[in-house]
Design goal:
- The model has no long low-confidence stretch (mean pLDDT 91).
- The strands form 2 sheets. Strands 1-7-6-5-4-2-3 form a 7-stranded mixed beta sheet, sandwiched between helices. It has a 4-stranded antiparallel beta sheet with strand order 8-9-11-10, with helices on one face.
- With 544 residues, the chain is α/β, with parallel strands linked by helices.
- The chain has 19 helices and 11 strands.
- It is globular and about 75 Å long.
- The protein has 3 domains: 78 residues; 264 residues, Aspartate Aminotransferase, domain 2 (3-Layer(aba) Sandwich); 140 residues, Alpha-Beta Complex (Aspartate Aminotransferase, domain 1).
- Strand 8 and strand 9 form a beta hairpin.
- Its cofactor is pyridoxal 5'-phosphate.
- GO terms for molecular function: aspartate 1-decarboxylase activity; pyridoxal phosphate binding.
- This is Aspartate 1-decarboxylase.
- Belongs to the group II decarboxylase family.
Length: 544
């Protein structure tokens, strides 16, 4: 099929008339609607294709001169894009926090795109604005559980905000700390506040050398971005070593006091409600006490673990989250909503006013426009997807999914413990865990080796883990990710481990068993396995 005509008639058709029911685009849409798993298994190719090869299809920097028929373009997308995408629906794709989605999001997303609402203000969103406010109210209620009268007063109030909807946890964390900064360095007599006067003037007025944010070493990388964007500087992110994967409250208090005695001010302590590497939860209740003693903001990054609050059985693992001044939750993680749905929630509905902005043509004073207190301006109607998921699943539905994921992680950890050539490196708190392939005799050797020998052996095991992870990924049957961390058994050394996220409801016990079996088979055939065994044998000979 040749080029499409450059004419107003053709362009109007693109805006107003759908493709013919037998067109390629219509076929794709029908296949997705009928059976998305079958569509992905047919069109997402698992064979190894290097990124360099894929880049060749996307190397032309010139804008196409002439229009292309939609069906022709759809064929091109199937061949060049879809074929080399990642099948996140696969039950054996357990390496990251992106998972299968319920089918209802496909037609609902079409509705959302078709309406094309802009949530920056009511004039471009109408009913979507109260809907988004209600979603924020529901999530606020999930975290803070205030009386009904509280929500009656604040949910749709032009003068208050229960939170900010955003594209994800990074923007949510930045938003929360932005509010905290503007609150701490707010207007006083003779000073207009940091929002107007700037950071240098605020430091002079408040007699502060630096403003810092504290988190554990397991804190999300977005916190480094946050202190950068907010002008604090990356050196003012106080990352505390976490050999047990969580932030030690006593250590946090000690470091915070010393920091403030040096003429600095601690802006916030960030507790993590489910780290991205291991799923551990900081002792939030105790950290709330520390924040209170130090006189700083307490933020909880629960982008991953916040959905655990739906579970009556496991919500206590986030005990203390209700004491946070602000909380980040990503709906596109364990709430099974498409990418682009994060939230920053504020305990006090007044606090968001610290970042309120106005403009004459938009965001007028006194309006209920959501953009007045959000970092992002133009935003789509993703809140509708969260709203729909909350209604279609309900709390009990989410509870079932969350409980099953956490139980599945427990089950997998027990499978690893029973597998002789594998070693569990972190015990799951939620639905994440880490482990590594490590021959049984090597594990025994590590228990009795001195520090120097143990470090040398672990370096060889690291090479084995990397080799297995790469080969398993390239084979395309399954996927686990890898990371480096200080495990409880090896607190003085970073080791390389497999990282799995067990949120996909489609992942079964048999899938997990198959993944372990594949890793074991790959491992025993690698040169890294041979090198490791030879090295351990040599160290035993030298010791004798």
């Amino acid at each position: 099929m040749g080029e499409a005509q450059v004419s107003l008639e053709h362009l109007f058709r693109v805006f107003t008339k759908p493709e013919h029911k037998d067109s390629k685009l219509a076929q794709i849409e029908q296949h997705l609607s009928d059976n998305i798993l079958d569509f992905l298994s047919q069109h997402v190719v698992t064979k190894k294709t290097s990124l360099e090869e894929i880049e060749k299809d996307f190397s032309d920097s010139k804008v196409p001169e002439s229009p292309e028929f939609v069906s022709t373009h759809a064929e091109s997308l199937l061949d060049k894009l879809v074929a080399h995408s990642v099948n996140t629906y696969s039950p054996t794709f357990i390496g990251h926090m992106t998972s299968a989605l319920p089918y209802f999001h496909l037609p609902l997303s079409k509705l959302m795109v078709g309406l094309n609402q802009n949530l920056v203000k009511i004039e471009t969103s109408k009913a979507f604005t109260p809907l988004e406010r209600q979603v924020l109210g529901m999530m606020h209620n999930l975290v803070y559980d205030q009386p009904q009268g509280f929500y009656d007063e604040h949910l749709h109030s032009a003068a208050h905000s229960l939170g900010a909807f955003c594209s994800g946890g990074t923007i949510a964390n930045i938003t929360a700390l932005w509010v905290a900064r503007n609150k701490l360095l707010g207007p006083q007599k003779g000073f207009s506040g940091v929002a107007k006067a700037g950071l240098a003037a605020a430091y002079r007025h408040y007699d502060i050398n630096n403003l810092g944010v504290m988190c554990s070493k397991r804190g999300h990388y977005s916190l480094s971005k946050a202190v950068d964007v907010l002008g604090l500087g990356r050196e003012q992110l106080l990352t505390v070593a976490a050999p047990k994967q969580t932030l030690d409250p006593a250590k946090a208090l000690r470091i915070g006091k010393r920091y403030q005695e040096e003429g600095n001010k601690l802006l916030a302590i960030v507790g993590v409600g489910g780290t991205t590497e291991t799923g551990h939860v900081d002792p939030l209740d105790e950290l709330a006490d520390v924040a209170k003693e130090l006189g700083c903001w307490f933020h909880v990054d629960a982008a991953w673990g916040g959905a655990t609050l739906f579970s009556a059985r496991y919500r206590d693992r986030l005990k203390g989250i209700e004491r946070a001044d602000s909380v980040t939750i990503d709906a596109h993680k364990q709430m099974y909503v498409p990418m682009g749905a994060g939230m920053a929630l504020f305990k006090d509905p007044q606090n968001a006013n610290a970042v309120r902005h106005h403009a004459q043509y938009i965001l007028r004073a006194g309006s209920k426009d959501l953009g007045a207190t959000t970092l992002e301006g133009s935003r789509n109607g993703m809140a509708m997807m969260v709203y729909s998921a909350l209604h279609i699943f309900g709390r009990k539905g989410y509870e079932l999914l969350i409980d099953r994921s956490i139980d599945k992680a427990k089950d997998f950890s027990q499978m690893i413990d029973k597998a002789s050539d594998f070693e569990l490196t972190t015990t799951p708190t939620l639905s994440l865990l880490t482990y590594r392939v490590c021959p049984e005799e090597v594990q025994e050797k590590l228990k009795h080796a001195n520090a120097q020998t143990r470090n040398a052996i672990n370096q060889k095991v690291d090479a084995l883990v990397v080799a297995v992870q790469k080969q398993q990924r390239e084979a395309g049957k399954s996927f686990v990710s890898r990371t480096r961390l200080e495990a409880p058994d090896y607190p003085s050394q970073c080791i390389t481990v497999f990282r799995v996220v067990l949120a996909n409801p489609l992942t079964s016990h048999n899938d997990l068993a198959a993944i372990l079996a594949e890793q074991h088979l790959i491992a025993k055939e690698t040169q890294a396995w041979k090198d490791l065994m030879e090295f351990v044998s040599e160290t035993e000979t030298l010791a004798s």
